[in-house]
Design brief:
By secondary structure, this protein is an alpha+beta fold. It is built from two helices and three strands; from the N terminus they run H-E-E-E-H.
Length: 103
């Protein structure tokens, strides 16, 4: 029952994803660029665990101020990316409920 892999279950990942969004460590919008590939040992922005060689990592890029020459890059696990996408949509939905609609 104490499988270490179960520590990274979906709920935990989604909590971490929400934390990095709220802390501003990862933008709350669609990436401007995205690549998948074998893990290169870089720490995952969401769960802080390195993406190992045998795993798939996503590299997501955000243009700063819409300038494509100035990119912020983040490495994340494929599962963490999925959790981040879910939380991003959840937060966007909640914001739409809380904020008044533009007239
Ligand atoms: Zn991760």
């Amino acid at each position: 029952m104490a499988d270490p892999a179960s520590l990274n279950d979906e709920c935990t990942l989604r909590e971490k994803a929400r934390e990095v969004i709220l802390a501003g460590k990862l933008p709350n919008r669609r990436p401007d660029g995205m690549w998948g590939g074998p893990g290169g040992g870089a720490n995952c922005t969401i769960c802080s665990v390195p993406v190992k060689g045998g795993e798939v990592e996503f590299e997501i890029e955000f243009a700063r101020d819409g300038d494509n020459r100035c990119l912020d890059k983040y490495h994340v696990h494929i599962d963490c990316f999925a959790a981040w996408e879910l939380e991003r949509h959840n937060l966007a939905c909640r914001a739409a409920v809380v904020l008044p609609r533009p007239a």
